[in-house]
Amino acid sequence: MAEADVDARIASLPPGKRALLLERLSRTRADPPIARVLRPGPDERGFELSFAQQRLWFLEQWEGGGALYNVAQGWWLEGPLEVERLRGAFAQVVSRHESLRTALVSEHGEPRQRVLDEVAVGLEVVDLSALPLEQARAEAQARAQVLARRGFDLAQPPLLRVAVYRVSESAHLLALVIHHVVSDGWSMGVLWRELGACYAGQGEALPPLAVQYPDYAQWQRAQLQGATLERQLGYWRDRL
Fold this sequence. Notes:
Layout: H1 3-12, H2 15-27, H3 51-63, E1 70-78, H4 83-96, E2 102-107, E3 110-115, E4 123-127, H5 133-148, E5 160-168, E6 171-179, H6 185-199, H7 213-223, H8 226-239
Parallel strand pairs: 4-5
Antiparallel strand pairs: 1-6, 2-3, 5-6
């Protein structure tokens, strides 16, 4: 039976039966879980990129950099802020996640990702509290937008920047800009949750990470090759 016919039959099922069938099909897949893939470690050229990373790296080279792939978020923090504690929290989060310590370098025209053991995250602090409150808030937002429009050099980690704009004793704007090649919307949620835990002094209680992003990249490369890759390429060739 052709894949299109299978898809059509699955789509015609009632939602409950469709979910049950998809769950059973997922259990029968031959792909090994990512956590079970043993990573031998990078060779002298570093790790391979995931397909998503390779696409973004290519687009960066093609378009000459810029801020198109920057992911920018900001939070208004109410109450007193301990800047050094926040700086330490960011350091803890970066130490946990290899993607936040990753550089994308070109070796003979081919991109590789290198994971650094340590990366210092600069936290810029700008005091705007001498301005009237509303003016200070507007200035903080304007500066955060300027921060978001600055491009990154993918070969120079960390591929994130942080700034705190103090508008009063109890009001601060925390601005975070990170390149999409090492993060996405879902990952930003993880980052904010872990940052909050580390700021609250609960960083040591966070569970160790069994899988890092380079593990996923190697797993993805191992799965999408040979007959599996040709089958998926053939699917899209037929439709495009």
